[in-house]
Design brief:
About 50% of the residues lie in helices and about 25% in strands. It is of the alpha+beta class.
């Protein structure tokens, strides 16, 4: 059994302990595996602003690191396409921020985001020759700054 299947079993076992019935599919997303959970208990599993989903991810990640030992696999967890929709929203905000930077020639500071959300912005704008991105701040107030190349 490979690492991908072992992580899926950890997710299934965790959901079973929470008495949540769900199906899990896998897909490639941002250079890693995304475990897509489909359930009628989506609201409880997602939580306010995705906080419960992030907690589930953190828990499964820690269990995987402990049980599998080796190099941690890059993965994410999505519940009822919440994360996919959020990624599209973040990509759109990144593109709009880049347009403002090109037009006004001034840096744009995005709102504080999780490490995963910041990574989405960096990857989205990485190929843009007029724009550079960097993360600033510490902890929960860490955000992405979009700047023109010449700055």
């Amino acid at each position: 059994m490979d690492t991908k299947e072992q992580v899926q079993q950890l997710i299934e076992a965790t959901l079973a302990k929470m008495n949540i019935e769900a199906t899990i599919e896998t897909a490639e997303l941002l250079g890693g595996v995304c475990y897509q959970i489909k359930t009628l208990d989506g609201g409880a599993l997602i939580g306010e602003n995705g906080q419960n989903m992030l907690a589930l991810y953190y828990l499964v990640k820690r269990m995987a690191e402990r049980q599998l030992g080796s190099e941690p696999m890059q993965f994410s967890i999505d519940v009822n396409d919440y994360q996919r929709k959020r990624v599209e929203e973040i990509k759109e905000r990144a593109r709009m921020g880049a347009q403002r930077v090109r037009y006004f020639k001034k840096e744009v500071v995005m709102q504080p985001m999780t490490a995963y959300e910041r990574r989405v912005i960096h990857i989205t704008l990485a190929e843009d020759p007029d724009i550079v991105t960097e993360s600033r701040g510490e902890g929960e107030v860490r955000s992405v700054v979009i700047k023109p190349v010449s700055q």
